[in-house]
Amino acid sequence: MTFLYPALAFAIGACIAIQAPVNNQLALSLGGGPLMAALVSFLVGSAFLLAIALFGGGLPAAVAALPRQPLWKLSGGLLGAAYLLGSVFLVPRIGLAGLLALVIAGQIACSLTIDHFGLLGLLERKITLARAIGAGLVMGGVLVMLYGDRLISTLRG
User: Fold this and answer.
1) Would you give per-residue pLDDT tens digits along the chain (157 residues)?
2) SS3 track for 76-145
3) Last residue of one domain, picked from the residues 94, 114, 144
4) pLDDT number for residue 1
5) Are 79 and 121 in a shared domain?
6) Distance between CA atoms of 71 and 96, rounded to whole angstroms?
7) Among the three residues 57, 72, 94, which one is the final residue of a domain in this structure?
């Protein structure tokens, strides 16, 4: 794996961290709550992607192939909308770090399962001891982030 791929993944993670508070501010400004902010965000993103697709080529072939796709392959948009709507709703309630810690924990648990069984057309990558320990460390870190201060306060009495 080249250095570029981890750096790109890190940058995408930073974008996700910025996205939730930006959309929360949009929700407050629009007065329509999380739903309107998610809708506007998706419309802006869709317009951006359409512009790129128009100039990048391949759009007519993709549109022609669309009716032959099983519905589950179109669920990515619904999953993205659920994430966006949920993050706009949750970020003012549990904070950005809490939201993203729990999102990452959910992603790791789900991705380990998908990899282990080779689901959704991915290569099978079995859960090894090292991967399980790594996931456990991340999950432990999430618990410390969410409940560590409360635990320390309780222990101090």
Assistant:
1) 688 999 999 999 999 999 999 999 999 999 989 999 999 999 999 999 999 999 998 999 999 999 999 999 999 999 999 999 999 999 999 999 999 999 999 999 999 999 999 999 999 999 999 999 999 999 999 999 889 999 899 999 8
2) HHHHHHHHHHHHHHHHHHHCHHHHHHHHHHHHHHHHHHHHHHCHHHCCCCCCCHHHHHHHHHHHHHHHHH
3) 94
4) 62
5) no
6) 32
7) 94
Instruction: Name 154's Cβ contacts closer than 8 Å, sequence gap at least 6.
Output: none
Quote the tokens at residue 145.
Answer: 């982030």
Q: Mark whether 78 and 57 lie in a shared domain.
A: yes
DSSP state letter for 118: T
Identify the residue whose tokens are 């032959």: 68
Distance from C-alpha of 143 to C-alpha of 95, rounded to nearest angstrom = 15
| Structural tokens at position 157 | 């009495």
Q: Which domain holds residue 64?
A: 1-94
